[in-house]
């Protein structure tokens, strides 16, 4: 077992012991073991690998959700204020001694946040916000306690912030997707209903079943644990862990899930083969014609509804992996993140939802990036790179032999060649963005290349590499230049949106 697996195991044991301890009875110990297995299985799902590696805050807002790294400082959990606000609008920061200022602009409104290193308050719109711990400045970035966001964000964005500090999840300007549960009899089944479609990851382990919601801000107003008193479905437990909503079902035998009503209803029941047949009718002596006995009613599996149209944007590098040094003071990781954020804002302005694979200064492996995009079921994946050589934009598609298979998100595909069935649509996306670059007089080339993790993406995928517009390397970070590229990318995606939707 690797060191990471050992750390995950210990964290999981600590979590389960803390959250599932309900007594010393044998039944409680059984549920504790089941909970340990289920939560551990969740943490080890490839698509959630980074959930175990790095504590983060999940932020859900209109048309965008993203993750922000959480750091432990002096016993308190902190987040970078720039990382939190940048996906929501235009930001700029200034430092003057110990005074740290952030200017935030969105929809024509401008707000100034003034904080001072070592102080427990920040000034927003001329009013002070008290914080549970001191404001921290590190390498030019300002950090606030996670708990302070409940007061800071409403004053900055004029939106209601619903913050779950322990679960590390924040809902900004939205009410969430409410979960309702009901147990039905004959046969026993648990029915979960939602006001809008959901697409959870499903993990079965023994007699427990875990639903993990990472894309939808699922909430509930009921108790954390509901004991159903059913001979098959004994209990359900809702929790929020590291930004993800989890619903743990405990049963007396293995159970399965079925989706219906456009993924708004999830039915959990015994496998169809395990449902007892209707008892035979007693023989009758009168010569009466026998009537057919109806079979037990079972939920009819329906084809899951197509997931929402989401574009995954992946800013290359991050953390200690800085990428290329584009100038003495400019690292590739900073250019890619700035451009990714501009593209995200342009797409959102056109009504397209965005999933930021890297929303802050986070280090991720290539496999983690691909797993995150595949789990999000993105309609298009765009990896953002930067280079000092050449001028303009280069667009890459995977260098793989095309597959004759029909593209699908449901069939098993090899990890190293997951992209092969999507090459034509990936090339279409690259061509549409190239056309928009030409219209804006941005030099552009499109070609196949061995750029990871394009091979591993199960869906249309391209990589965009931006180079300076002139011989002055610093111009690659020009706001005007990056905005022109972002507009071209958004327009190119909008132009082929019907094709991307039809392929899903």
Keywords for this structure?
Copper Amine Oxidase, Chain A, domain 1, Immunoglobulin-like, Aminopeptidase, 10-stranded mixed sheet
Describe the structure.
This protein has 504 residues and is of the alpha+beta class. The protein folds into 3 domains: 117 residues, 2-Layer Sandwich (Copper Amine Oxidase, Chain A, domain 1); 97 residues, Immunoglobulin-like; 193 residues, Aminopeptidase (3-Layer(aba) Sandwich), CATH 3.40.630. The strands form 7 sheets. It has a 10-stranded mixed β-sheet, covered by helices on one side. Strands 5-6-7-8-9 form a 5-stranded antiparallel β-sheet, with helices on one face. The longest helix has 18 residues. The two termini are 38 Å apart.
CATH topology of the largest domain: Aminopeptidase
Percent helix, as a range, is: 10-25%
How would you sum up the global shape?
globular
CATH architecture of the largest domain: 3-Layer(aba) Sandwich
From the N-terminal CA to the C-terminal CA, the straight-line distance is 38 Å
The overall pLDDT average reads: 82
pLDDT < 50 stretches: 1-52, 274-280, 293-306
Structural class: alpha+beta
CATH superfamily of the largest domain: Zn-dependent exopeptidases
Q: What is this structure's SSE topology?
A:
Elements: H1 3-19, H2 26-43, H3 49-53, E1 56-61, E2 64-69, E3 71-73, E4 76-80, H4 81-85, E5 90-96, E6 99-106, E7 109-116, E8 121-124, E9 127-130, E10 136-138, E11 141-145, H5 149-157, E12 161-164, E13 169-172, E14 177-178, E15 180-184, E16 189-193, E17 201-205, E18 208-213, E19 218-219, E20 225-227, E21 233-241, E22 244-251, E23 256-260, E24 265-269, E25 310-315, E26 325-327, E27 330-331, H6 332-349, E28 353-356, H7 366-375, E29 380-386, E30 392-398, H8 423-439, E31 444-449, E32 461-467, H9 479-495, H10 497-502
Parallel strand pairs: 1-13, 2-28, 14-19, 25-28, 25-29, 29-32, 30-31
Antiparallel strand pairs: 1-2, 3-4, 4-11, 5-6, 6-7, 7-8, 8-9, 10-11, 12-13, 15-16, 16-24, 17-18, 18-22, 20-21, 21-22, 23-24, 26-27, 30-32
Helix pairs in contact: 1-2, 6-9, 8-9
């Amino acid at each position: 077992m690797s060191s990471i697996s050992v750390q995950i195991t210990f964290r999981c044991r600590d979590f389960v012991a803390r959250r599932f301890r309900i007594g010393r009875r044998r039944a409680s110990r059984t549920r504790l073991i089941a909970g340990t297995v289920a939560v551990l299985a969740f943490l080890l799902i490839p698509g959630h690998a980074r959930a175990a590696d790095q504590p983060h805050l999940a932020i859900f807002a209109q048309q965008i959700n993203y993750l922000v790294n959480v750091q432990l400082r002096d016993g308190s959990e902190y987040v970078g204020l720039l990382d939190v606000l940048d996906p929501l609008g235009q930001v700029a920061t200034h430092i003057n001694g110990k005074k740290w200022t952030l200017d935030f602009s969105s929809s024509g409104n401008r707000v100034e946040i003034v904080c001072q290193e070592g102080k427990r308050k920040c000034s927003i719109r001329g009013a002070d916000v008290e914080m549970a711990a001191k404001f921290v400045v590190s390498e030019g970035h300002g950090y606030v306690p996670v708990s302070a966001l409940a007061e800071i964000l409403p004053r900055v964005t004029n939106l209601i912030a619903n913050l779950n500090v322990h679960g590390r999840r924040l809902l900004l300007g939205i009410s969430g997707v409410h979960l309702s549960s009901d147990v039905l009899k004959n046969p026993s089944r648990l029915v979960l209903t939602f006001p809008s479609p959901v697409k959870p990851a499903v993990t079965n382990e023994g007699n427990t079943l875990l639903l993990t919601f990472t894309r939808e801000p699922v909430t509930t107003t009921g108790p954390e644990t509901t004991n159903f008193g059913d001979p098959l479905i004994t209990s359900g437990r809702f929790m929020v862990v590291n930004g993800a909503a989890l619903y743990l079902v405990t049963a007396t035998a293995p159970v399965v899930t079925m989706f219906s009503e456009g993924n708004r209803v999830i039915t959990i029941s015994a496998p169809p083969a395990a449902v007892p047949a209707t008892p035979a009718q007693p023989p009758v002596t009168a010569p009466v014609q026998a009537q057919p006995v109806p079979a037990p009613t079972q939920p009819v599996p329906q084809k899951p509804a197509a997931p929402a149209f989401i574009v995954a944007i992946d800013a290359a590098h991050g953390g200690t992996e800085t990428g290329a040094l584009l100038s003495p003071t400019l690292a590739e990781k900073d250019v890619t993140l700035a451009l990714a954020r501009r593209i995200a804002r342009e797409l959102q302005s056109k009504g397209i939802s965005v999933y930021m694979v890297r929303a802050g200064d986070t280090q991720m492996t290539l496999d983690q990036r691909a797993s995150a995009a595949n789990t999000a079921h993105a309609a298009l994946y765009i990896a953002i790179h930067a280079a000092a050589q050449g001028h303009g934009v280069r667009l890459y598609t995977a260098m793989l032999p095309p597959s004759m298979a029909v593209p699908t998100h449901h069939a098993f595909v090899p990890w190293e060649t997951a992209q092969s069935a999507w090459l034509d649509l990936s090339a279409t996306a690259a061509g549409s963005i190239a056309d928009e670059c030409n219209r804006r007089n941005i030099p552009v080339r499109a070609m196949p290349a061995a750029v990871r993790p394009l091979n591993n993406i199960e869906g249309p995928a391209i990589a965009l590499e931006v180079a300076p517009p002139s011989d002055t390397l610093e111009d690659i970070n020009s706001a005007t230049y990056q905005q022109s590229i972002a507009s071209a990318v958004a327009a190119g995606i909008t132009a082929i949106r019907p094709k991307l939707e039809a392929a899903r």
